[in-house]
Amino acid sequence: GLDYLIEEKLIAAEAAARKVSSDDLLKTEIDDKVGEISDADAKAFYDANKARINGEYETLAPRIKQYLAQQKRQDLRDQLVASLRAKYPTKNLLPIDRVDVAEAGSPAKGPADAPVTVIEFSDFECPFCGRIEPTLEKIEKTYGDQIRFVFRQFPLSIHPHAQKAAEASLCANEQGKFWEMHDAMFADQHSLGVDQLKAKAASLGLDADKFNACLDGDKFDATIKADMADGQKAGIAGTPALFVNGRFINGAVPYDDIAKVIDDELARKGITPKKAETE
Q1: Cβ(244)–Cβ(265) under 8 Å?
Q2: Which residues are bridge partners to 153 per DSSP?
Q3: Which residues, 6 or more positions from 275, have their beta carbon under 8 angstroms from its beta carbon?
Q4: CA 261 to CA 133: how far, in whole Å?
Q5: pLDDT at 74 over 70
Q6: In this prediction, what percent of the chain has a pLDDT beyond 70?
Q7: Band (274; pLDDT cuts 50, 70, 90)
Q8: Is the dihedral of CA 196, 200, 205, 210 positive or negative?
Q9: Residue among 27, 3, 1, 28 at smallest CA distance from 260
Q10: What's residue 97's pLDDT?
Q11: How far apart are CA 279 and CA 263, in angstroms?
Q12: Which of 163, 164, 236, 273 is such that its CA lies 20 to 30 A from the CA of 151?
């Protein structure tokens, strides 16, 4: 709600600078630029999405064009607001709801003093957790040392191999290869049986005897239970669940949703996002 009010103020400030009304500014910068959605664009959208669209193109064409126009209008508004935020610097001082979630000695990567810490509660067998991994990799690549990632376990009972997969990751962590095991398991979520986990560990060069004894002995069962208790205390009911400096993000959300929170966290500390250097 506050973001919307800020946008309205920015638009009003720019309209005043141009000596026009806010409505006239929006017409010039958005409505006039949307134009007509071509048949070719509508058909291309239909062809790309027809597997999940119920109906024939001829019937749906008007609705598709309306949808594409709305998308274009929103994109143009976002571009306008972004340019106005650069022209008229603003700072959001509204206190943010945060959940106090500790790292608890969990596997982590990135500088300990990074301005933004992302704590992820995840399940190696959860398809939505697998779906968000490329997004998190993009965030790591984009923000570099401005981000610290912490992984905490939250294996769901509906996934029969999740508990052992969680144990396997911590057994690998004991040998300094948590993230290698993490990547290997998410790369093939259908191969998480105990024998398959042991094979993955061997392929990563882990000490097989030590890893197998760890996995067979349920060595990290208490650690996983503690992670789950902390997650439940923080309000988690499913996975993936992210806490960006304590700000809760639920589910496999798009990159832009997470980046917006990270950018806001950096802005609150007076830090320019590294991604701005390449934009």
Answers
A1: yes
A2: 122
A3: 142, 143, 259
A4: 17
A5: yes
A6: 98
A7: confident
A8: negative
A9: 3
A10: 86
A11: 14
A12: 273
Instruction: Tell me what the pLDDT averaged over the chain comes to.
Output: 93
Amino acid identity of 180?
E
- Tokens representing 44 are 């291309």
| Mean pLDDT of the 248-265 span | 93
Residue matched to tokens 């969680």: 166
Amino acid at 171: C
Structure tokens at 51: 């597997």
- Inter-residue contact 171 to 219 (CB < 8 Å): yes
- pTM of this prediction exceeds 0.90: no
Among residues 59, 79, 71, 104, the alpha carbon closest in space to that of 10 is found at 79
Query: Which residue reads 């571009």 in tokens?
Result: 79
Structure tokens at 60: 């749906």
Q: How many CA atoms lie within 13 A of 247 on its CB side?
A: 15
